[in-house]
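Students often ask why inverse folding is considered easier than folding. One informal answer: many sequences map to the same fold, so there is more than one right answer. In these notes we will look at a single instance of the problem. The structure comes first.
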């Protein structure tokens, strides 16, 4: 059995000022491929929602070797590598028009009871619908994402809009990366590109909330930059983490 594959063309509204695919658009491509795979095996968004279930993303790990440009076509392969209780691991490869791998991603998803907003065991009929390929796209362990108490931090506030909400009635995972990128220094954003990205989603957020994106520079040298990020909400006197992230950047 072959791994599921979907082709995309890079549109004008998906590129930056260098005419390269944006990280946000890449995440949308990956998620769209995962959804299309689930539709193909008979357990897509609509059918699961009718049963009161949905998949929500818990973690991303992404490595980019090359970014496709405006008008180019890419193919994305995806496959589940492991199911356990209410967790599912899903892998991705991004290939250019010459079938060269230009990006890899591993992700962890949680099977959710939408009414109770709690994880629930994956039904046997759902897991049986997929073919498991045990090979991993990325094999390194997920990093510990911590900020220091002393380094300077960049902060920006955002109000969650209706357009940020997805079919699970919470903020779509890609929107968190949009907030992260808004706190990257402009000179870095224009002269470097993301080479790797790790995100862990801690708590869902919904329409109307005010959130804060916080970024701390860990390192910046001639060819590389490294940042850690938090997406926070205020709960009384405390700040609660909605998501933690790490980005590594390489000079263009």
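Output (designed amino acids):
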């Amino acid at each position: 059995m072959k791994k599921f594959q979907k082709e995309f063309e890079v549109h004008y509204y998906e590129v930056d000022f260098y005419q390269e695919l944006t990280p946000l658009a890449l995440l949308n491509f990956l998620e769209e491929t995962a959804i299309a795979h689930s539709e193909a095996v008979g357990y897509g968004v609509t059918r699961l929602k009718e049963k009161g279930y949905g998949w929500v993303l818990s973690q991303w790990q992404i490595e980019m070797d090359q970014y496709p440009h405006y008008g180019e076509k890419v193919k994305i392969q995806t496959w589940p590598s492991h199911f356990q209780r209410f967790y599912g691991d899903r892998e991705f490869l991004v290939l250019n028009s010459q079938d060269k791998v230009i990006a890899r991603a591993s992700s962890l998803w949680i099977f959710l009871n939408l009414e109770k907003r709690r994880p629930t065991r994956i039904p046997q009929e759902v897991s049986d619908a997929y073919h498991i390929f045990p090979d991993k796209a990325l094999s390194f362990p997920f990093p510990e994402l911590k900020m220091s108490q002393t380094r300077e931090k960049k902060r920006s506030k955002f109000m969650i809009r209706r357009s940020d909400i997805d079919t699970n009635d919470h903020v779509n995972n890609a929107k968190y990366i949009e907030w992260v990128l808004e706190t990257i220094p402009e000179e870095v954003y224009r002269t470097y590109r993301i080479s790797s990205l790790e995100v862990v989603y801690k708590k869902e957020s919904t329409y109307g909330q005010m959130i804060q994106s916080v970024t701390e520079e860990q390192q910046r040298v001639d060819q590389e930059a490294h940042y850690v990020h938090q997406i926070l909400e205020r709960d009384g006197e405390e700040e609660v983490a909605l998501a933690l992230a790490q980005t590594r950047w390489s000079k263009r």
